[in-house]
Fold this protein.
Amino acid sequence: MAKKEMDSKMQYLFEGILSLKTIEDCNRFFEDICTVVEVIEMSNRLAAAKMLADNNTYTDIIEKTGLSTATISRVNRCLKYGSDGYAAVLDRLDAAGAHPFAKEDEE
């Protein structure tokens, strides 16, 4: 995949994200900077990446996330041929014991 060149505004944004210390900080920041739909879409894409990494089927991913097959395919391409951004985050979340459906699974 083609890499985008980072400009100073993107760097400023990423530095801002890295400055967040708690889940509540993240929630408040992303609530301000994104629409609810954008945050939901990003969370669904990350959940899809986790499910793909765990060898779930597209049907299972659609059922759990509501994403289109086109979006799931894009996430899958990024997992296989991207910049390893998903892989790094998934590894760190796995190490922390986080799971996208943990609370839902308990209900």
Q: What stands out?
A: Residues 37-106 form a domain with the Trp Operon Repressor; Chain A fold (CATH 1.10.1270.10). The chain has a mean pLDDT of 93. The chain has seven helices and no strands. The first helix runs from residue 8 to 19.
